[in-house]
Amino acid sequence: CITYRSGLLWIPDSPDQIGSYFARFWDFIKQGAIPSRFAIVVYLGWVVSHAFGQIYLSGKTVKGLPMRGQNGKQLKYTMNGWKAFWLMWIILFGFHQSRILPITVFYDLCGELMTVSFAFSSLLSLWLFLFPNDNSPTTRSISGFWFGRDLNPRFRGFDWKLFCEARPGLPLWAVLNVSTCVKQYETFGSVSSSMLLITFMQFWYVVDYFWNEEAILSTMDIMTDHFGFMLCFGDLAWVPFTYTIQTRFLCSMDSLHEASPLLLAASFIIFVVGFIVFRSSNSQKHNFRMNPSKHQKKGTFIETKSGSRLLISGWWGWVRHANYLGDIMMGWSWSLPTGYSTLLAYFYPIYFTILVLHREYRDNVHCQKKYGDDWTRYCKIVPYRLIP
């Protein structure tokens, strides 16, 4: 719908048209989503180059939090994402300037790359399912494939979860947006203010991740979620190819779309406020988890019978998930500049709001089981779940 119908939803007008509808749908798939050898080479080259970056680039070595059920064992991680991210742009700029690989290739091959990423993430998930580190027989099931059998699968020291959480997916998200900007310029002779603003805000989000890369080690994804198809597909395929729907929609229109200055200003303000809430609350949580000895002041946390502490100061004394609130605000700010001509341009914030609400529910259930009466006490101190 985005690529071939400028964001308009496409459904049969009558039951008689269902057959022709799917035939035309298959034509679109053949035209733009069945991968060529070139697309396969581009995607695999992308993944392999980022893997080499994680393995060989120097960086700060950091210990993760004690692993669940591993007698306090802490894995070591090399934080070199910041260096890898900017090295990537230098290489891409060189390829683009020399015309070896113009950056618009990523826009032109978007559907094919999406298909390859789906196949790659599926095969990787299957391999991790069939050959887990812990070889647990209790998770040989559909749920074991979906959620994963290993908490932190590693192959000869290479951490698959840390790699897939960011390396191929987040940079590809940024590259697809920049590629779309260049494509719009080549098509219309200029880049719209809506396109520039969305690309800038999302680029800032990705840059912030790599600047604060160490913070990923204290998140639910790393600490508690096993690594299976859900995270693997989400990181490698879902993120780069659905989070860029807004910019692709703007480029697919018949003319440049320019949002009103008021709407652009409102979008940017929502983004800035959301980012401040998101980053400051996440930083408070990360510092509390990684350096508990620095948070000894009475009233900043409550002790639990499990031996853990629950933070009740700063953002976490006002609302249980301020970081989720900030993330939701940023998501809506990325779609507002597209205007109101199609609901598809709002796919990301709608989906993400539902995701976060469900994740908040999962968090609450998990913490209630883990902390029991202490969690009930915590909820009385901090009664608000998302909005303070």
TrEMBL record:
Pfam assignment, any one: ERG4_ERG24
GO molecular function: Delta14-sterol reductase activity
Protein name as it appears in the record: Delta(14)-sterol reductase
Alphabetical GO biological process terms: cholesterol biosynthetic process
Pathway terms, separated by semicolons: Steroid biosynthesis; cholesterol biosynthesis
Entry keywords, A to Z: Cholesterol biosynthesis, Cholesterol metabolism, Lipid biosynthesis, Lipid metabolism, Membrane, NADP, Oxidoreductase, Steroid biosynthesis, Steroid metabolism, Sterol biosynthesis, Sterol metabolism, Transmembrane, Transmembrane helix
Annotated PROSITE patterns: STEROL_REDUCT_2 (PS01018)
Transmembrane segments: 38-57, 77-95, 107-130, 193-211, 223-241, 261-278, 299-318, 338-357
Keyword 4Fe-4S attached: no
Domain of life of the source: Eukaryota
UniProt EC number: 1.3.1.70
Keyword NADP: yes
Uppermost EC category: oxidoreductase
